[in-house]
Design brief:
Blueprint: H1 2-48, H2 56-73, H3 79-102, H4 107-132, H5 140-159, H6 163-189, H7 196-221
Length: 225
């Protein structure tokens, strides 16, 4: 009898955990969808206003300030505003880049292709996590080290104009961003992530880095860079 009660208790606990994970996933996707709209509108605004080159250090500085604010407010409803701040800022700073590609032969084709490839990778990695329901938490340390190395490489690329370094950094960010989407989605469905604000930022930044990396790679191999 005690064993039966224990099994029932475990079943109820598992059901409750699954329901919490499903709620976090719904909230994350909902906020992510709105964030993509905010980012697209911000990018369109920057493009329509003809905003020119923005210093990369300003882009990074503002981004980290917003990221810090998000980390402080992620457990409150105010954290949603910081999410829109991050996504809006990254969208706004992407507008001038898209305008630059628009001036190149076939540049907009590269932009649309990068967007399509980003959507396919996101759908694929999400499907793997949802269908297999495997715990990919073992990727955490690899991703942390890999992103740190890629970020240092990106900063170095601002000082040293070495095409091979830029290409390597873009390839690293594309791979790591793809795996980060898989890792974060897996964390949500397996109960390792219960904060949809934090999860949304992780997924959006992964999509952002994936898109820019693919765009740069397409530009290089398409002869636009």
């Amino acid at each position: 009898m005690d064993r039966d009660y224990r099994y029932v208790g475990q079943a109820h606990a598992q059901t409750a955990a699954n329901e919490r994970a499903a709620a976090v996933l719904r909230n994350t996707y909902g906020l992510l969808s709105m964030s993509l709209v905010v980012s697209a509108v911000a990018a369109w605004f920057a493009m329509s206003m003809g905003i020119g080159f923005i210093n990369p250090f300003i882009v990074i500085g503002v981004y980290f300030v917003l990221l810090f604010a998000n980390a402080k407010l992620e457990n409150s409803s105010a954290g949603i505003l910081t999410v829109f701040g991050i996504t809006g800022w990254l969208g706004f700073t992407t507008g001038p880049l898209i305008n630059a590609y628009a001036q190149m032969p076939g540049g907009m084709d590269a932009v649309f292709l990068a967007l399509a490839m980003t959507a396919v990778v996101f759908a694929g990695m999400t499907a793997i996590a949802l269908v297999t329901r495997k715990d990919f938490s073992f990727l955490g340390r690899f991703l942390m080290v890999g992103l740190l190395v890629a970020f240092v490489g990106a900063i170095a690329g601002l000082f040293f104009k070495v095409p091979a370094l830029h290409l390597m950094v873009s390839a690293m960010f594309a791979l790591l961003s793809s795996l980060l989407i898989l890792w974060q989605t897996s964390a949500i469905i397996n109960g390792g992530e219960d904060n949809y604000i934090r999860a949304t930022v992780t997924l959006f930044v992964s999509l952002y880095n994936l898109f820019l990396s693919l765009l740069h790679l397409l530009g290089v191999f398409g002869g636009d860079d």
